[in-house]
């Protein structure tokens, strides 16, 4: 038995809370996109309301980790694990915020007919959500090979993003009266692109945790 | 000072030491650099105190000690027959776990070493006492009570008197064997600050059980286990990303 059983128990709790937070954030991102596509304002309102829980969970994790650092003076891998936990929690909390932003755009769009480019944004969303879900798994398994594969998917998201923006600009030229929705969809695609970047950040954090060195996977 | 410009003060080569049949140090290879603080950490009985007591040959006071290998101090093997132990100890001062001032006045504690070395002139002795006490960051606290018994001051102050006493003979190296383990936190921080100051002029080797202390004050850290050096590296590396699992387990409190 480890002589630092209490520390190990607390650390494990913080990591379990991180998994809960991550799952909540990725579900929110999924749900916000579904609300947009189905033009479900009630579901969008739920995403906004549920974000309070995500924020609170991040605060819980931060408090727990800070207390652990203060009381246990962790070093080396223990310390990295705690710092990485805080950073990943922050990444995931931000993903939750993007879900809220998308939900707000959904409410603004209301019952207007959706532009066809939404299909391409959905493709981005599927990829971003898949990256985030897989990176959580990689994190739990501390699997850096998987993490690297996930980070490589980011290029596809970036390509899709460029494609969506080009299509929206073309639409703006053809239908200037749709400019308001075009702008909203451009923002939404940006939130998706950023969400995928956070998945890459988390993959980099996992490398740092396992190897103790910084890697830039976003090249 | 750049890394390459620094010289080794001690080079330990394949050092083995036995207390009777107990093999206490095994094939130690360590290079200790000048003007650095080198921390030696490890669980009780790992050989860390034995090692620094070997550096000034104090370990020879223990009967039945046998050694093999070499310790070069400034390039000369201290185990050579013609190497005078007095000469070595003039260059290498030591501070112990518990403050151990002589039962004399503060002044006489500091002047003790210089007097033994033949300095009689009161004015020179006064200068040495003041300089040493200033060097140990305790002059302001004791300058008006130099004639009081060294036992009349606090433990933390006594320890700095002992450091001043070591400085009075103008050593090259200061060995510290858990110098703060009997001190309160504030006195500990004062001694730690002092160590940082002293490394500008001296090379310091410190044995400590307090791993955060090693992390705070040392440039390099050697981790001893069962008489062997498991890992020796920059302190930043040892405490952030050690390469040996045993080092990681020890510094993160999983055994020891």
Description:
Chain A: It holds the Pfam family PhoU. Chain A: It comes from Planococcus wigleyi. Chain A: Residues 21-105, 121-205 form the PhoU domain. Chain A: Plays a role in the regulation of phosphate uptake. Chain A has 219 residues and is mainly alpha-helical. Chain A has a single domain, classed as Up-down Bundle (Methane Monooxygenase Hydroxylase, Chain G, domain 1). Helices cover 86% and strands 0% of the residues of chain A. Chain A contains 6 helices and no strands. In chain A, helix 3 packs antiparallel against helix 6 (179-211) and helix 4 packs antiparallel against helix 5. The longest helix of chain A has 34 residues, at 5-38. The model of chain A has no long low-confidence stretch (mean pLDDT 94). Chain B has one domain (3-251): Rossmann fold. Chain B has 10 helices and 10 strands. In chain B, strands 6-7-8-3-9-10 form a 6-stranded mixed β-sheet, with helices on both faces. Chain B has a 4-stranded antiparallel β-sheet with strand order 2-1-4-5, with helices on one face. In chain B, strand 7 (173-177), helix 7 (185-198) and strand 8 form a beta-alpha-beta unit. The model of chain B has no long low-confidence stretch (mean pLDDT 94). In chain B, helix 3 (106-116) crosses helix 4 (122-135) and helix 4 packs across helix 6 (155-167). Chain B is of the alpha/beta class. The chains are: A mainly alpha (219), B alpha/beta (256). Chain A binds chain B through residues 2-4, 7, 72-80, 212-213, and chain B through 211-212, 215, 239-242, 248, 251-255.
